[in-house]
Write a structure and sequence with these properties.
Layout lengths: L24 E2 L23 H10 L3 E8 L5 E9 L5 E4 L1 H9 L4 E7 L4 E10 L4 E6 L24 E6 L7 E10 L8 E3 L11 E4 L4 E8 L7 E5 H17 L7 H20 L5 E5 L2 E5 L5 E7 L8 E9 L3 E4 L2 E3 L2 E9 L5 H18 L10 E8 L4 E10 L7 E9 L5 E12 L1 H14 L1 E2 L4
Antiparallel strand pairs: 1-12, 2-3, 2-5, 3-4, 4-7, 5-6, 6-7, 8-9, 8-11, 9-10, 10-13, 11-12, 12-13, 14-15, 15-25, 16-17, 17-20, 18-19, 20-24, 21-22, 22-23, 23-24
């Protein structure tokens, strides 16, 4: 039996959006609110080994601090790191270091400062939002220490436990080098990243990570705040790809009047197509929650947790299942997008009468919808509510859609459902889909709405 289609009217406009919790923190340095943090707030650097000392001595002339400044007043907005490529005037850093310049070039400008105190303007040439990389041009040449091979096949293979060295300008305190070990590719990230068990502190974003022979292994990108010495690197093969793109642009003379906001939007569109394709490459899993079957997706990128408030003599019992992608695409300090989150809540009561239970469930449902609609980077939510029935279960359903103001063709979808078949028992589901095309958002919403079921799994 087909369920009724939820029809949605929305405005297609073209400005930023939203932050997702529990994502590794990009290690770009922001101006401090307080004068000093206690030593426990940051990871201490171990005394450098002789290998580290030699590497730093050889590399220091090609290390840069990358500063983002307000054009008005030239005050510092954020600080990261970068490194010269060969003997060229090209610099590699993170996209998130340059995101303000990419998205708001009329407000922000960049400058570099090297280890000798020389400084100058930077020009943004290319970005890779999905792998968090950017290439700049500066008014000086490299000494040739950081050599990037022209082809991925020329990269040296890394082995588990191999010592690596990260360089950069931590906490805007001065240039430094830290030692750690390579510990493989992170399976939970949507795009490949290396795990580096060494300190990468704020301000080191965009700095190089090299082997003991000085060969580039990757680029510093982020760290986990809930772990010790759990840091992440962008693999060098993505640096090669972006540098090859810059070389091609130079041949075709496409460097001028670059619209980076439009390019960010195009890369996000490509990501959401890949994300939805992976999400739907196999059927959703159905899990029992009370007498209901609820759809989830568990994979390398999506993890699920459960919890319950079950206590003796409680007026009601609530069991929850939460699934969320553990990575998102960093676009700006206000916006991380391109992911999906699923929450199912099963509430039942023997203590509350039908009226009181219904009132509690109705308020819970309304609060979920209202709390999801506030974000200045998106248009106001356009919501449609229907009472529908899929193959086995009558549901109250609300679908809300918001358009990204800055990135045409991208939307956030929020689907809320509540079962209506029991008087003192309720299943509520909430699916958030961030940064997708309208077609893919509707496709996913229909799939989840049709998959919620009552009774045993077929």
């Amino acid at each position: 039996m087909q369920f009724k289609k939820i029809l949605v009217l929305l405005y297609c406009v073209s400005t930023l959006a939203l932050a997702i919790p529990a994502i590794p923190e990009p290690s770009v340095e922001k101006p401090a609110e307080a004068a000093l943090e206690t030593s426990s707030e940051t990871t201490p650097f171990a005394p450098p080994s002789s290998a580290a000392q030699k590497l730093y001595s050889s590399a220091k002339n090609d290390l840069l601090q990358i500063r983002v400044l307000l054009k008005s007043g030239r005050t510092q907005a954020s600080v990261g790191s970068g490194f010269m490529i060969g003997t060229s005037d090209l610099v590699v850093t993170n996209y998130h270091v340059m995101s303000q310049i990419a998205l708001e070039p009329d407000i922000y400008v960049g400058e570099f400062v090297d280890t000798n105190g020389q400084r100058g303007e930077v020009e943004l040439l290319a970005i890779d939002v999905l792998h968090d990389l950017a290439v700049l041009r500066v008014g000086r040449k490299g000494t040739g220490f950081f050599q990037v091979p022209g082809q991925v096949a020329q990269l040296s293979a890394l082995t588990q436990g191999q010592y690596l060295y990260s360089l950069g300008n931590p906490l805007d305190l001065g240039f430094a080098i830290s030692e750690g070990a390579y510990n493989g590719i992170i399976g939970r990230a949507f795009y490949d990243q290396f795990m580096f068990t060494g300190p990468i502190n704020s301000g080191m974003s965009g700095g190089p990570n090299v082997t003991s022979q000085g060969k580039i292994a990757g680029v510093n990108v982020s760290k986990r705040l809930d772990g010790e010495l759990v840091s992440f690197l962008v693999p060098a093969r993505f640096v090669i790809a972006l540098l090859n793109k810059v070389a091609l642009q130079a041949e075709q003379k496409k460097m001028s009047t670059k619209n980076f906001s439009a390019e960010v939007g195009q890369q996000l569109i490509a990501h959401q197509n890949l994300m939805v394709g992976k999400l739907l490459e196999s059927p959703l899993s159905l899990k029992a929650l009370g007498p209901y079957q609820v759809p989830v997706r568990e994979s390398d990128q999506v993890r699920c947790w459960g919890r319950s408030n079950a206590k003796p003599n409680a007026p009601f019992t609530l069991d929850q299942m939460n699934c969320q992608m553990e990575s998102a695409i960093y676009v700006s300090a206000q916006l991380q997008t391109g992911n999906i989150a699923i929450r199912h809540s099963f509430t039942r009561s023997q203590e509350l009468d039908t009226l009181r239970f219904s009132h509690m469930i109705t308020n819970t449902f309304k609060n979920q919808v209202a709390s999801s609609t506030k974000d200045q980077g998106l248009t106001a939510a356009v919501c449609t509510e229907e009472f529908v029935k899929n193959q086995s279960l009558p549901l109250r359903a609300v679908l809300c859609v918001r358009a990204y103001r800055k990135f045409a063709g991208l939307y956030d979808f929020a689907l809320f459902t509540a079962s209506t078949d029991q008087s003192r028992m309720s299943l509520q589901s909430h699916v958030d889909t961030k940064g997708v095309s309208y077609e893919n958002g509707m496709r996913l919403s229909r799939l989840f709405l049709s998959s919620i079921a009552k009774g045993s799994k077929p």
